[in-house]
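Record format v2
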Amino acid sequence: MNLLSRHTDYAVRALLYMANRVGERVSSMDIHRDLKLPRPFMRKTLQVLQKEGYLVSVKGHKGGFMLAMPPQKIRLIGLMRIFQGDISLSDCLFRKKLCRCVAVCPLRREIKSMEAVLVDRLSGVSLADLMVR
Amino acid sequence: MNLLSRHTDYAVRALLYMANRVGERVSSMDIHRDLKLPRPFMRKTLQVLQKEGYLVSVKGHKGGFMLAMPPQKIRLIGLMRIFQGDISLSDCLFRKKLCRCVAVCPLRREIKSMEAVLVDRLSGVSLADLMVR
DNA sequence: TCTAATGATACCATTATTGTATCATTTGTA
DNA sequence: TACAAATGATACAATAATGGTATCATTAGA
């Protein structure tokens, strides 16, 4: 199981990369070269981050991206919500039909509570925390 | 995201069903009729549970299944491990290549620690706990 | 001996995720 | 001013995991 999707994973890496180059303009080519992430896919990641206000972009020659906010303000939970939707450990709508979980309610309650723990932990992690080494 | 796969989910339901019919022989047909689970698929679930020692089976006419142990001994984490492998929030081998996570180690550490919390919680839940109502 | 059950297993369908390709637009610079 | 290098937008394809079906062999009760 993967808590983070590729988009989220690549987002974290790319953002970390930029956090270490504050003031510079970073292109998808730079990231591709240095981090070896598949470029077309990761470009989509970056575009989403731009739309969501995490990145400022400059088009054209010598264009690229820069962080739009300090690393302290970028939280793991925020990135996950963008790329993976609300964190849930039991997706309960199954093609518009009601979940198969309602019948096993005590189990559902357990899982929901674990979910809350997880979200709490994830909320505590910022990009800045991941930069410390 | 789903913490539980269908197999695990169906296993819990079927086991709960049998826990409420101790002494009776329960067939896959009974479960299908009463719980509306897709029979061929759920039959596989039951067969695995039998192989793993959770169920005793009787073949032939009037055959079926019975719990092989008391509900207190059946733990959610055990079922998950059978049907989903070891609980991990960051599957790190990607087609035999080393994970893409190692490069973002602090993140990996965070996730591993959340994983431990989750496993701990899951270990605490038994079938008997889910029967209480 | 027929029927209803499990055991084993092969196969198919669906979905989500991951990844590629392409074209339009923008902008610095030779 | 034209070219090159970048992002924006978007359509399409590949892959893998999961979920599900079908079938045949075997067993056992009535």
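Residues 5-7, 38-41, 44, 58-63 of chain A lie near DNA strand C (CB under 10 Å from a C1').
Helices of chain A lie at 6-19, 28-35, 39-51, 76-84, 105-123, 127-131.
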